[in-house]
Write a structure and sequence with these properties.
The chain is of the alpha+beta class and 468 residues long. Strand 16 and strand 17 form a beta hairpin. Strands 1, 2, 3, 6, 7, 8, 9, 10 and 11 form a nine-stranded mixed beta sheet that branches. Strands 13-12-14-19 form a four-stranded antiparallel beta sheet, with helices on one face. Helix 8 runs antiparallel to helix 9. The radius of gyration is 25 Å and the shape is globular. The protein has two domains: 273 residues, 3-Layer(aba) Sandwich (Protocatechuate 4,5-dioxygenase, Chain B); 172 residues, Hypothetical protein ph0010, domain 1 (Glycoprotein, Type 4 Pilin), CATH 3.30.700. Helix content is 38%, strand content 23%.
């Protein structure tokens, strides 16, 4: 009897085990890249041997990489992957577009592995399953991955330059606002020191060589500056093209939320550079997004920029025009400028979202704080000598899920309800000695709302870097 039970359960066990380790076979091996292991190893090593590591910023949070056939885009991809050689990375978030299957939201591959001729790459099942959310249209659709190449072509490069790592594969279809908010928040939380996001995209398609370069340069500039506004506008108007579409925009925002503040292009080329046919080309770029804190010297430069902007406007009614070379200052940034006179508030205006390059936001908000804050009269020439200037750089907004997690002195708040909105910077409750309950009441008052409106309003928190 016992033996019968054992033999009856054994096939069931084998079925369950097979299900657990089942995975996906490659679909473009033999077309986009060699199907033979040795040939694939040779072509990747040949690509990498032609690239040297460049001196970059310390921590790369995201890599944008092309996904065409290796004979066209493999060399460009190698410029980015060369920078990952020897890095202590054990988790890779792969995100790209769905070329063959239309669907709403995003599809996450949650079980088993993805196979290439170089071996199997296992899914980080816990993290992948943690992304699923029906309300945000984030689910597992096997058919989305059946013929898709955008993620697959990244794997052999990763298998070559990294050692032990797992992946979280995501294909994006037609995302809703909920999809965007859910994925950017979740992915930014995953992006620790040993995790990177790889965003798979090609650039312009089938224009002549010069037109392609013109369009691609606009897209590359937007990516380097982490400008969601410009990237989305280029996509919407057709002035720029990137088939990664909203998967790339999600990756940029997730990287920005994780602290990325500067982009570096490792290589740009198009198919015309490979084939010689420059009539109908496809563009490719390899770009890294990095987290690089401002130095003390750079903070002083921003304060000086704000001071010069105020003086020039108050004295001559002119907006200063300065040549800016520092790429960190060209990245889009959310900035508030606060002006005090003899310790008393004299003006404070800013942007909650990163609508423009950091340096422009400093200039614009410095001028607005000095001359357009409706609570005060414009600053006069005689007051200039007594002013203290403070710049607050805001992190991306995140929804408050539990008010008990709000930390006085660390978090600022934004509230939105019934068309009313208000913001209080992290330093405000410290200056006035407020506790958390008072802070919540005051953000409501700031928005012209009842003191308990925060209970059913849109409430967001942010951190900030304060430059004195």
């Amino acid at each position: 009897m016992g033996k019968n039970v054992i033999f009856f359960l054994l096939p069931l066990f084998l079925i369950l085990f097979a299900c657990k380790v089942s995975g996906k076979e490659p679909v473009v091996a033999g077309s986009f890249y060699p199907a033979d292991k040795e040939s694939l190893q040779k072509i990747i090593q040949d690509f990498l041997s032609k690239v040297t590591k460049v001196k970059t910023y310390e921590r790369m949070i995201a890599l944008i990489s092309p996904h065409a056939g290796y004979i066209y885009s493999g060399q460009v991809a190698a410029f980015g992957y060369k920078q990952l050689e020897g890095k202590d990375i054990n988790k890779v978030i792969l995100i790209g577009p769905s070329h063959h299957k239309g669907f709403n939201g995003a599809s996450v591959y949650t079980k088993g592995f993805l196979r290439t001729p170089l071996g199997d790459v296992y899914i980080n099942e816990k993290l992948a399953e943690g992304l699923l959310n029906e309300q945000a249209d984030v689910k597992f659709l096997a058919e989305a991955f059946e013929k898709e190449h955008s993620l697959e072509v990244q794997l052999p490069f990763l298998q070559t330059v990294l050692k032990d790592f797992t992946i979280i594969p995501i294909l994006v279809g037609s995302p809703t606002r909920k999809t965007f908010t859910h994925l950017t928040g979740k992915l930014s939380e995953m992006l620790d020191e040993k995790t990177i996001i790889i965003a798979s995209t090609d650039l312009s398609h089938y224009h002549n060589y010069e037109k392609a370069k013109e369009m691609d340069n606009k897209v590359i500039s937007a990516i380097e500056r982490l400008s969601l506004k410009d990237a989305e506008n280029l996509l919407r108007t057709g002035e720029g093209e990137f088939c990664g579409g909203y998967s790339l925009i999600i990756a940029i925002e997730a990287a920005r939320m994780a602290g990325a503040n500067i982009g570096t292009t490792f290589k740009y080329a198009n198919s015309g550079d490979v084939t010689g046919d420059k009539e109908r080309v496809v563009g490719y770029a390899s770009i890294g997004l990095f987290k690089e804190p401002l130095t003390d010297e750079e903070k002083k430069e921003l304060l000086a920029l704000a001071k010069d902007a105020i003086q020039e406007y108050v004295i001559r009614k002119k907006v200063i025009d300065k040549e800016i070379k520092n790429p960190k200052f060209k990245t889009d940034g959310a900035v508030f400028v606060t002006i005090k006179e003899n310790g008393q508030l004299r003006g404070c205006i800013g942007h909650v979202q990163p609508y423009m390059p950091l340096y422009k936001s400093v200039i614009e908000n410095a001028i607005s704080a000095s001359s357009e804050d409706p609570r005060f009269l414009p600053i006069t020439k005689d007051e200039l000598k007594d002013l203290d200037i403070e710049i607050t750089l805001l992190s991306p907004l995140l929804p408050v899920t539990n008010v008990n997690n709000i930390i006085i002195g660390k978090h600022g708040l934004v509230i939105r309800k019934y068309g009313h909105s208000g913001i209080l910077l992290p330093q405000v409750p410290v200056e006035f000695g407020w506790d958390r309950e008072t802070f919540l009441k005051q953000i409501c008052y700031k928005a012209g709302l009842p003191s308990d409106a925060w209970k059913d309003a849109e409430l967001y928190y942010f951190t900030a870097e304060i430059i004195h």
